[in-house]
Amino acid sequence: MQPDLELVHIRKGESFAAWMHGYPFRTVRWHYHPEYEIHLVVATSGTFYIGDHVGSFQPGQLIMTGPNLPQNWISDIAPGEAVPLRSLVIQFPEAFIEGASASMAEMEALRPLLDRSRRGLLFDDETSARVRPLMERLVEAQGLRRLALFWEILDHLANAPEYEVLASLSFELDLTRISDGGINRALSYLREHLTEQIEEAGLAEMVGQSQSAFSRAFKRHTGTTLVRYRNQLRIDLACQMLLTVPEIKVAEICYEVGFSNLSNFNRHFLKLKGMSPSQFRATFAAQKAMVMAD
After folding, report:
1. Quick one: what percent of the chain has pLDDT higher than 70?
2. 138-160 pLDDT tens trace
3. In this structure, what DSSP letter does residue 118 have?
4. Both ends of the chain: CA-CA distance in Å?
5. Between 3.40.50.300, 3.30.1360.130, 1.20.1640.10, 2.60.120.280, what CATH number should domain 4-165 receive?
6. 223 in the Ramachandran plot: left (φ > 0), alpha (ψ -120 to 50) or beta?
């Protein structure tokens, strides 16, 4: 089965994404993305897939994956159950790393880590325990403090005493075949222009399909329409901002993620999340405090 392209959104003025999510969540599917990822499981146990590797996970599992390595984590929970905080995630583009390497000679010490991560790396419990508080602080940090925590985390990973390489040497994702698919090309474009007004007719023309054929293919691939899918991505981005930038106002988030008016944003948020943005922020803050206290 071909993996879906995940749209990783890095906010303006930031070099990488640091966020958290619960379970179920939209990214929990067989997917890939061109960014590196550091993934720490906070709660639940289940089965994970990295390339052609299949294994079991539990709280504390720490994995780093390189660009375009397919992955998925499926938690074993009861039907209808929801977990408020399942994973802490850092995602950073290759261009950011290469740019830093070009200007900082010390970055060469990270090269072996970055190269090995292209097959996926599972770290030991001691490294996970050291990295978790840093990731928790990074999710809410701003400015230079974000960068300091980011480099400290990579330093821990680069000097980890033990790690397991996951995907086999023979595993290789056929990116040419995937990238040539019309829907994934459209998703890639949507990823880069999420906050802009993108019409279905324009995407259909871009991938060389009629609008009706594109609409059917898009719904078959994503399970929903372009408008609903885009609104879901924008609301997901709004949730990240509500959780990681506590001082930003709801109205500011509304316009930053691409909605044209506050009432429309609030209506879609309520429909998708079952509560208002302010309630979501307060509820998740309380749940997060409970989880962190365990």
Report:
1. 93
2. 998 989 999 999 999 999 999 99
3. G
4. 38
5. 2.60.120.280
6. left
The answer to whether residues 65 and 50 touch, using CB atoms and an 8 Å cutoff, is yes
C-alpha to C-alpha distance for 184 and 2, rounded to whole angstroms: 11
User: What is the per-residue pLDDT across 173-208, written as a single tens digit (0 to 9) for each?
Assistant: 665 555 545 777 787 788 778 888 888 898 988 888
Candidates 1.10.530.10, 1.10.10.60, 3.30.200.100, 3.40.50.620; CATH matching 177-288: 1.10.10.60
Tokens of 262: 């506050």
Count of positions (residues) in the chain? 294
How many angstroms separate the CA atoms of 72 and 206, rounded? 29
The encoded tokens of residue 132 equal: 């978790």
Q: pTM for the full model?
A: 0.71
CA distances from 19 to 5, 229, 242 (A): 18, 20, 11
Distance, CA of 269 to CA of 265 (rounded, Å): 6
Q: Report pLDDT for 48.
A: 95
With a cut of 80, say whether residue 284 has pLDDT above it: no
CB 245: neighbour CB atoms within 10 A? Answer: 15
Only one residue has tokens 């309520």, namely 270
Question: What pLDDT score was predicted for residue 46?
Answer: 96
Is residue 38 within 8 Å of residue 84, measured between CB atoms?
Answer: no
Domain segments of the chain as ranges = 4-165, 177-288
Quote the tokens at residue 284. 């998740």
Strand 121-123 relative to strand 62-65, pairing = antiparallel
